[in-house]
């Protein structure tokens, strides 16, 4: 059995995704959980690269790996420590473990029960994708950015009203 470089890289990326996901779930410190999420997002970008989706890998790194994790860390930094002192362990964890194990079993059965086809793939170039995105899809792209801006402004307004009511 010959192990190629791409197989080794795929295993490394898979370990990043699985390890990061486990770190998110198992970390007792929420900041460590946020950084584990960043590791999982970087690994997911690697999976996209294996699927010849350079644009999705770039978006994964910039938006999810960068912006979302930074927003989570800032939200944690701005949250009062008293809000975390009242947190208790969830009593439903045995049910969650059973459901997770059942889902893992279904995924493993599907993985090993389906045939694997080996084909050479090819991706779409970033230039072509960028040109199509900003010519044919410019209006939906702008609408999506406007919706995100409205959501951000709404969140700021809700937080400010909550702070004014509870000094």
Explain what you see:
By secondary structure, the chain is mostly helical. It has a domain at 1-81: NADH-ubiquinone/plastoquinone oxidoreductase chain 6, subunit NuoJ (Four Helix Bundle (Hemerythrin (Met), subunit A)), CATH 1.20.120.1200. It has seven helices and no strands. It has helices at 5-26, 30-50, 54-78, 82-85, 93-113, 126-135, 138-165. Helix 1 (5-26) packs antiparallel against helix 2 and helix 2 runs antiparallel to helix 3. The relative contact order is 0.06.
Terminal Cα span: 67 Å
Range of strand content: under 5%
**CATH-defined architecture of the domain at 1-81:** Up-down Bundle
Order of helices and strands: HHHHHHH
Q: Name the average pLDDT.
A: 82
Largest sheet: none
Q: What fold name goes in the CATH topology slot of the domain at 1-81? A: Four Helix Bundle (Hemerythrin (Met), subunit A)
At the first level of CATH, what is the class of the domain at 1-81? Mainly Alpha
Computed structural class: mainly alpha
Shape: flat
The DSSP helix count reads: 7
Radius of gyration: 21 Å
Give a count of the beta strands, DSSP E runs of length 2 or more: 0
In helices, the fraction of residues equals over 70%
CATH-defined superfamily of the domain at 1-81: NADH-ubiquinone/plastoquinone oxidoreductase chain 6, subunit NuoJ
Which regions contain 5 or more consecutive residues with pLDDT less than 50? none
Short description:
78% of the residues lie in helices and 0% in strands.
């Amino acid at each position: 059995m010959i192990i190629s470089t791409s197989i080794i890289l795929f295993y490394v990326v898979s370990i990043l995704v699985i390890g990061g996901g486990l770190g998110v779930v198992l970390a007792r410190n929420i900041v460590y959980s946020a950084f584990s999420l960043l590791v999982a997002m970087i690994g997911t970008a690697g999976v996209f690269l294996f699927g010849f989706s350079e644009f999705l890998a770039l978006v994964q790194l910039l938006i999810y790996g960068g912006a979302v994790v930074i927003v989570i860390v800032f939200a944690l930094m701005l949250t009062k420590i008293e809000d975390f002192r009242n947190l208790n362990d969830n009593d439903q964890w045995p049910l969650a473990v059973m459901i997770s194990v059942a889902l893992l079993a279904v995924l493993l059965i599907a993985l090993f029960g389906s045939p694997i086809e080996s084909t050479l793939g090819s991706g779409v170039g970033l230039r072509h994708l960028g040109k199509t995105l900003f010519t044919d899809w410019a209006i939906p792209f702008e609408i999506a950015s406007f919706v995100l801006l409205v959501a951000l402004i709404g969140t700021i307004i809700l937080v400010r009203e909550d702070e004014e009511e509870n000094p």
